[in-house]
Structures are given as structure tokens and as C-alpha cells.
């Protein structure tokens, strides 16, 4: 309400002043006197009231301070007068009196503040009235067109031209604003148009005056721009600054900024046709290749360097000339990107982009274009960083990059996926039918490394994480994506491993017992048994292990560390761990199958070379020292075990050799036990069996499988059941061996005399005795 009244008063003052200055007929009233006399008297009276209020406020504040001191004194002596009720009553009375004084002081303070606010408003009204009267006087000059100096259309122009340029510009803009407000009764006057309508004739006169003021503003602005250009040619920075200071009053200097930047050599010398010719010449030597990319980037770098140096020089001039130097500099940089840099990029990318979008494009065409785009992106980012270094800090680099490259990379990253799929397919075709090797994995890694780095550079922020993850690995246990590194490598490795397993199984099946029995060269036989069943698979597993190790190291050092944000990096690491774990499981299955093939071949070797006479010899079957030697079949088997160990060391490495030999020993133990169970033993043959078991125990001990060696030692102890006299067997079983009756029966049935041999009483056979023992348990 109060604000509305004040605004209304301001309008009334302006109307009165307009009538005084222009007169009832619209012409200037020379005899008009000041209309602020009444306002002055009111202000003087209000100042006197304000002074009195402040004096009262000081008086009451002094009384309040005295009362506070008295209250503190009474409080300090209250303990001494606690028994006297009068002290407490006086204290309460004093506190109540203090509250009353504080209330009066607060009311006086509010009155003083209110009076001060009114004084400020009245002073504003007085200043407004004074300024309005002066401005209306200038307005009236624009209505007089007779007797003007040469070159001036009215008295208003003649009056303003006598002032300096800055004062003239400031006053002209104020006059234009006042005239427009008087016409519409809005703006700072804050009165609706219908509240105080302007009479028709006066409105027409005001409209004419406003139009004349606008014409003068345009003439003055043109004159200042011409002066700015003149001083610019003479490098007169001081006068240029004066002109720019004045021109900033006209719409913030927008016309000056546009005029100045358009005249800069940096923008005048950019010719798109010339740029395209230079770029075509640089790319023609090696279309899409590294050499062409380097030459194009050298050309782009030279252009960018020239642009950066030009901006640096222009910034020095801008700082000297323009009061709003930062805004002009930012506008200069904006135009540099929109005009020059955009033209540079279009010229550099055009040749490779044309090849990449052609109907018969190849993977190399697409890769050449993407390489040029990524290199250009890096160069442009370096330019932006250089601009920030010299003080152009108003650059949003990421936003600017997105705007510049969106036109050229509108279908990214689909283009990148298309490229990856084509390159991976080409690599698979190149290595089709070859033994698994690290070359394919290295080539796939290099392709993915380049694409992932490029994707992090060129893709939009909202697409980046999903695109990088798809290039690294598909979120699927089938690993069937044609453009994911992990999927392609997994399919290649599994294919190579499966091929080796199929080849090994086929080779093992083709070995005949005759070929295994007829080979007299021990080393050749070991190579045939072990090489056929394990050699190819072990070679592939060894290569696969090296490939995975190198791939993991490369991914962690060159790819994962560069991936951001951290959540995406952790996700890719999880994919890598899952991939390695799945490969390890597949390799374990392949080795298990190879061990099975090896045992089958070894069983055929033992069957072909083991003779019944080895374990049931007659006295004349042994030559000199034959009892102390292992059987020929054992010699072959032990040789194969040592050959397997050597193969493990060569292909799998020492850390993996001992675990594998242990698993092999646990697998070979039941096979050998079944083999021994197909023969009958007399005491001499049993001793030779113990010799064979000792050989097996020693062999596994030497290859790092002591657990298997101890089992063969235990088996040798049990073989004593084939050596001792029948009557000693019960004591041997119960006191030394302590094995189950089923185990005892197994050994009893291997004795050549198990059907005829009886215990000491001569009544029970060994088989019947231990069968009864087993039934009792």
C-alpha cells in the first residue's frame, strides 16, 4: 500500500513537471518555477522530528544502562540479604522497571527507524523530481527544430553535441527510456496504463520526441564506431577504449562486439575451399593409413597453432581497449570454434569420412576415419586447453567437443561396433585351421585397446559406460558377442583347445596294440604314448596359459586403468575374473580327458608287454640277476610317467607340474591295481611285483608326488601276502597290515596256490578262512 502511494506521488510529480516544462500547449514554459518547494518544507520538518526521536532514544538508553548496572549490584549482594525479604522485592521491582524502560526504548527505536525510512523515501522523491525536471527540459529541446546549428535536426541534438561523447550517450539513453515510460506509464513508474492516460496531442508529441532521440542514438553510435575504427588503424588504444566505453551503453556494446570480431584477420582469412584442398593433398599419399593420419594432424595442428597465437594477440588488444574484456574474449573464442575450428574439422575429416560412408566401404576405411576423428578430437582438446592457459577460462570443453563432433560422429558408437565385428571376423579367418597361438590374442587385444580408448573419447557421456562394457565383454555366459574382446578370445581359445582334444583322441584311437608291442626303442615308445595322448593338448594348454597371462596383464595395465568411472572399471574387472575362471575350468576338463586317454594307451602298452611268466616264473625262466630287475612292462610305464613329467615342465611350468602328477598318480593307481589283479603270483613272481611297485613309488616320488609314492609303498606291503607261507598270513594281516577282509581276499585270489593252500591246522583254505572273517565283520 505504502509503495503504491509513493509511486502515485512520483507520477503526480512527473505530470506536474511535464506541465510546467512543456506548458499547456506542449511548448516549453520558460517561466516555470521549481515544483519541489513543498517537498523541501516537509523534509525539513521531518528532519527536526527525527532529531528529537534520536535524542529521546539516547536519553532512554542511558537510563536503561544505569538500571542494568544497579540490577547487577543488587544481584551480587543478594546472598548477604537473603534473610531480608525486602532485598528480593526490590530486585523484582527493579527488574520490572527495567523491562518497562526497555519497552519504551524499543518503541522509540521503532519510531526513529520509521521516521528514517520516510526520510529516505522523501529524499528519493526529491531526487526523482529534480532529475525528472532536468530530463524533461532536455526532452523539450527535441521538440524545437528551428534555429539549429548545421548538422543538427533539432535543439536536443545541438544541446547533446556540446557535451562529451560519454555524457551525450548516457543522457540520450536516459531520455529515450524516460520518453518511453511516459508514453506507456510503466517501468519504474509502476502505474497501469489506464491509471493516468496521456492526452492524445501530448502523446503524439512525446512519440515524435522519442523517435528523434532514437535517431540521435543511432547517429551517435555510428559516429563512435567510425571513430573506433579510425583509432584502431592508428593503434590508439586509449581513444579506442573511450569509444568502447561509450558504445557499451548501447545494448551492452553488442554491435561493437560483432563489428570488431568480424573485422579480425583470424576470421577473414578462413577459406573452406583452400582448407579442403590442403587436407586432400595431405591425405592422398596414404588413404586411411597411419601416414595420412599423421599428415592430417600435422596440418590441423598448424591451423590450431595459428588460431591460438592469433587469439593470444587479440586478447592483449582486448584487455587494453574493452572494459568488458572477458566477455569479448569469450565471444572471440566462441566464434573461433563455430567458424574456424568447425571449418578445419570439416576439411580434415571429409576425405576419410567419404570413404567410411561409401556403399563398398571396408573395415580399413572405417578404421581410418575413426583414427582421424580421434586424433582430431585430441588436437581440439589441446587447443581448448591452450586457450584456457592464456586466460580464456569461459570454455566448457566437453560441451564444445560434443557440439563440434556431433555432426561428424552422429552414428557413433554403432560405427565402432561394425568395425570391431569386421576386424575380429578378419582375424578369425586369418588364423582359421592353425594351432592356437598368442598372435591372434595379441592382435585382438590391440584392436580392442584402440577401440575402447576411442570410445571413451568420442562417445556421449550417457552412452559411454554401456558402449565400453559391450566392447570389453558381453554380459552372457555364452560369450557369443561378435564385437566383445573377451567373447572373441574365449571362443578362439575354446576352439583351439577342442581341436587339440579331438586330434589327440583320434590319434589315441588309431594306436594298435601291435604298434605298441613292436616298438623296441624305449624313447620312441615313450614319445608315442605320451606325445599321442598328451602332447598336443599340453602344448595348447601351455600356449593358452601364456596368452591368458599376457592378456590379463595388458588389460590391467593398458585398458582397465584408463577406464572410468570406477564402477565401470570394477565391472570390467569382474568380467575378466569370470572369463579366466571359466577358462580354467575348461582347461581342467581337457586335461582330465587327456589323462584318461593316456591311461587307456598305457593300459594297452602294459597288456601288450606284460607276460604271465613275469609273475609266475619257473626257476629256469630267470637269468642271472633277473629277480632284482623290474618287469619290461614296468620299465615302459615308469618311462612314460617320467616323460609326462618332463612334458608338464616344458608346457605347463614347474608350479603346475607337481599337482598334475599327483592327480595322474591317483588316477593311475586303480588302473595298475586292476592290471596286477589279472595275474597269478608264485613267491618269486610276488617278489618281482614288489620290485615293480618300488619302481612306481620311486618314480612318483621323483616327480613331486610323495602322496602317490606312499600309496605304492602301502601296496607293496600288502603284496607280502603273496610271498609269505600260508600259515603266517593271519598274523601278518592282524598285526602288521590291518587291512579289510575284502582287501585280503583280493590278494589271496592272486596267489597261485589260493585254492590248495591251507592254514596250519590243515582244515581251512585261505579263501574260506578270510571269507568267514569278512562275513563275521
From TrEMBL:
InterPro entries: Sec10-like, Sec10_HB
One Gene Ontology cellular component annotation held by this UniProt entry: exocyst
Residue span, Exocyst complex component Sec10-like alpha-helical bundle domain: 167-430, 435-759
Recorded superkingdom: Eukaryota
One of the protein's GO biological processes: exocytosis
The protein's name: Exocyst complex component Sec10
